[in-house]
Amino acid sequence: MARSLRPCALAVASVCACLTSAAALAETFSSLPPPPSLASSGEQQRYMLELVVNQRESGAIVPVERRDGHFLLRAGDLQRAGIPAEKLPDPQQVDVSQWREVKADYDDRRQRLLLTVPPDWLSGQVIGEAQNGPRYPGRTSTGALFNYDFYATRTTNAGTRLSAWNELRLFGAAGQFSSNGVWQQQMEGRAPAQDDGYIRYDTWWSNEDENNVISWRVGDLTTDALSWSNSVRLGGIQIGRDFSVRPDLVTYPLPAFSGQAAVPSTVDLFINGYRSSQANVQPGPWSLTNVPFVNGAGDAVITTTDAVGRQVTTTLPFYVSSTLLKAGLSDYSFSAGAFRDSYGIKNFDYGEAAASGSLRYGATDWLTLETHAEGSDTLAMGGAGAMFRVGSLGVLNGALAQSQMNGAAGTQYSWGYQYNNSWFSIGTQHTLRSREFGNLALLSSRTGNSDTSNTTYSLARRSAQYNASVSLSQYGSLGAAYIDISGGDGQHTRLLNLSWSKTLWGNSSLYVSASRDQQQGAWSGAISLVIPFGEHGSASVSMERDQQGENNQRLYLSRSMPSDGGFAWDASWANQGGNSGDYRQGSLRWRNNKIDTSAGFYGDDDYNTQWADLTGSLVLMDSEVFAANAINDAFVVVKTSYPDVNVRYENQSMGRTDRNGYLLVPSISSYYPAKYDIDTLDLPADITTPKVEQRFAVKRQSGYLLHFPVEKLRAASVILHDADGQPLPVSSQVLRDGQATEYVGWDGIAWMENLHASNPMRVATPDGRTCSAELTIANGQPQALKTYGPITCPLPPRPAGAPVPSPDNSTSGITP
């Protein structure tokens, strides 16, 4: 009986298991929405679905309520998906199935709710970062610089004359001080001239505030000017905006492009046929700002490609002018002082007080406003102007100025136009002045004239300039210029110039030019052929015809100076026509890292001159004196405290440090973030340095002491044993005052740095025991890569029952 009932019991159990599984599956499927075809109109359920907006998968899982075949979402979830609150029809819950601007699709296979909204609803994206590059503040050290230039000439019937130009410069954190001038002396020949002796040119002190992009100068200066004003020399003070101290700033407006993406896409930007950037964009508006630095007219082609390969291409013309200012950016300069009269003739001759100021402001990216004012006791002048970008057709400029000089009023009008692209450029500038118009330049020429004659200076009444150039591709390039000037003294000058140039075989080139003076009604022209020989040599042959109808022939040979120094020379011969005789000229130059010297001659059979020149500089920094070529801007002194170390500037070798470990790197562009590094491959194995490369900028007219600490390696391996002669446990900590924690490795070996003659230490084992020891080095000079020891560090006995630590389960948790 029992046997017959067992199969039945098994069958009943199977049926129960099947029923239980079916119930579990039913409960599971009840939490998932049914396919749309099976959904009844009356049910109301809540599901968890992935929300996808315009095919952008964010991975967000949100609750979705299904009611009568419609899908309802919370407004907060839609906002977090990027849909703005003002576009939502309900602030609490939104029925996306009845949203007129939105398309809602249910993906039952992947359990997603797909929404398609207008692209302009989504948040905007900026592709690329701001155009400003990384900033490297200018550095300076305390030091002094002396530039010199000795020049000697001997001329037929004029004798021998010596001159020595010099500049003394002091610099540091307080700024830069400079004074320059020239000493001249007639050695033989005619009687000493009145200008023999020392003539001072300029003396000034200046400094910069890089954070506010401002510089100031006290002493001799030249006023800043706009395109429709003039500069004068003053002795006084000057303050103004100085963008040269911040090369990371781009002051002129660059084009920006924008668009919309309905789905995730890729945007490619082509500038004048070259792809400049590529970026991935999400659905919504986007703007492209990482445009390369371009100037002039061009075409931008924007190609948008979506995930399935569909492309939309848009071509947009643009025009960039570096003379404009970005919207909201200002540029200004103010100068006040006294006229520098008899400049280059008298040392301290200052005249009437004067002041000058200019201001430029970027009102928009296409409009820059300008204003200028200047005055003195007898003059007041002021005006305003603007520069206007006409779409992609170029830039117009115009200005109007009024003056009051010695009681007479005058007016000046100025206007012009500039346009250029990759193959064509054109420009014109006009100035029209009334007879009574005056400015500081005119006033300075009158008051500073040391001539006792009745010479009267006046500004040009009218001037017009026209220029154009065009690239003819393989046929060369063509240029033209025309100048028309009506002087205040009634003279009229009209000049026309035409030129054509073409590159021939190799790097040889042909140049043809012709000029015509409209007043004399005569043409002059020249043809020149330049042929290079090797890397440094070149030769040119030219033929000219002047306005008097004389024909001249010229032959010129030269060898340029190699970048690392050496010899250079040049020689020329010219048949001047007429009775002038042949002209001959030649020079020889030699330069190394410390001096630059040259000598030569020039002249004809009746009049010739021989000359010699020696230039260079002396630098005082870090109590050391260095000799170098003339330094016009900034420099760097590299200090390694170790001799014969190769120093590189922008990956170019600049030489090796001297026996004291110094090397002067001259002719550095100020505020340029350059890379300096040293080559450690030639250093011995016991020499180390924590830095091998540094990038920084140097302040204007200054120098910087760059330190690469090269020193002997004061490190070695030390074997530590306990009192029984056994290695100390792995991961034991070696503690020394003022030093980083070091660790014991296998066989009791520890690597220890910054060793001295006496090195007391305390060792802590992973099980908490400690001991003390001391490493004594003879003469205090550890031998690099040597192993010292074993040194005994007696550990106290291990407590009874304490576990024995092993390298695999060390309590320190540190593997050496």
Task: Write up this protein.
Helices cover 5% and strands 54% of the residues. With 816 residues, the protein is mainly beta. Among the domains are: 44-120, PapC, N-terminal domain (Ubiquitin-like (UB roll)); 257-320, Immunoglobulin-like (Sandwich), CATH 2.60.40; 622-712, Immunoglobulin-like (Sandwich), CATH 2.60.40; 716-800, Immunoglobulin-like (Sandwich). The strands form 9 sheets. The protein has a 24-stranded antiparallel β-barrel. Strands 4-3-2-1-6-5 form a 6-stranded mixed sheet. A 5-stranded mixed sheet has the order 8-46-44-41-42, with no helix packed on it. It is extended, with a radius of gyration of 41 Å. Residues 1-31, 36-42 and 807-816 have low confidence and may be disordered.
Query: Please, how many helices?
Result: 3
Shape: extended
Could you tell me the strand content as a percent range? over 45%
The pLDDT mean sits at 85
User: What is the name of the CATH architecture of the domain at 622-712?
Assistant: Sandwich
Task: Name the CATH class of the domain at 622-712.
Answer: Mainly Beta
Distance between the termini: 76 Å
Region (Disordered): 794-816
Organism: Pantoea latae
Protein name: Fimbrial assembly protein
Biased composition (Pro residues): 794-806
Note the main attributes of this structure:
single chain, 816 residues, mainly beta, Ubiquitin-like (UB roll), Immunoglobulin-like, 24-stranded antiparallel barrel, 3 helices, 55 strands, 5% helix, extended, disordered N terminus, disordered C terminus
What does the secondary structure layout of this molecule look like, with pairings?
Elements: H1 2-29, E1 44-53, E2 56-67, E3 70-74, H2 75-80, E4 93-95, E5 103-107, E6 112-116, E7 125-127, E8 138-139, E9 143-155, E10 159-172, E11 175-186, E12 197-209, E13 214-222, E14 233-241, E15 257-261, E16 265-271, E17 274-281, E18 284-288, E19 296-306, E20 311-320, E21 330-340, E22 350-364, E23 367-376, E24 379-389, E25 395-405, E26 408-420, E27 424-433, H3 440-447, E28 462-471, E29 477-486, E30 492-503, E31 509-517, E32 522-533, E33 537-545, E34 551-559, E35 566-575, E36 582-591, E37 595-603, E38 608-621, E39 624-628, E40 634-639, E41 646-649, E42 652-656, E43 662-668, E44 674-679, E45 687-688, E46 693-698, E47 703-707, E48 711-712, E49 716-721, E50 733-735, E51 742-743, E52 749-752, E53 758-764, E54 770-776, E55 787-792
Parallel strand pairs: 1-6, 7-18, 8-46, 40-47, 49-55
Antiparallel strand pairs: 1-2, 2-3, 3-4, 5-6, 9-10, 9-38, 10-11, 11-12, 12-13, 13-14, 14-21, 15-18, 16-17, 16-19, 19-20, 21-22, 22-23, 23-24, 24-25, 25-26, 26-27, 27-28, 28-29, 29-30, 30-31, 31-32, 32-33, 33-34, 34-35, 35-36, 36-37, 37-38, 38-39, 40-43, 41-42, 41-44, 44-46, 45-48, 49-52, 50-51, ...
